[in-house]
């Protein structure tokens, strides 16, 4: 009883102003502050180190295959196709971020109107480098349980996509040092075995609207 009472007391001490165990409290917001309360996406994170403990962002120049310069190419009404991209050489290690190639796009990344289409080819896991991607049924996304890293490294690269360009910030520790969190806005993972390839009936027939050739968000519907 004494132990439970002490732990209950510690839980009530977790506030944005004061955290137990020397942790840093940060709110991760996934929606605008003007959104209705029931649609807010946010989580309180309790970290070993603050998220701002990294070097300034700089352009990520490991490759120049990601672009949002749609106006650099003249329009072409002819029937077109793209050739397959070259696979990484056997002696080259290319991860997900390095293997990205832009295929097409429209709109403006700065105003967040439009979209971009990328393809990737990689043969190596992301080691000491972080990125994210995925879209499928909500129930297939798994949020983390009790696990974190307290790991110092010589150089950890955090890659960020901002206004159609890639940037990278270096830091001397793992960014996965969130010891505790609560809320509805959290990182997740997805098992690709649950993904149904289109034009198959592996699990069931997809909704007909999924076969829309291309849709592009705009400021006016």
From TrEMBL:
Keywords: Dioxygenase, Iron, Metal-binding, Oxidoreductase. Residues 194-220 form the Homogentisate 1,2-dioxygenase C-terminal domain. Pathway: Amino-acid degradation; L-phenylalanine degradation; acetoacetate and fumarate from L-phenylalanine: step 4/6. Residues 13-129, 131-192 form the Homogentisate 1,2-dioxygenase N-terminal domain. Its cofactor is Fe cation. InterPro entries: HgmA_C, HgmA_N, Homogentis_dOase, RmlC-like_jellyroll, RmlC_Cupin_sf. Belongs to the homogentisate dioxygenase family. This is Homogentisate 1,2-dioxygenase.
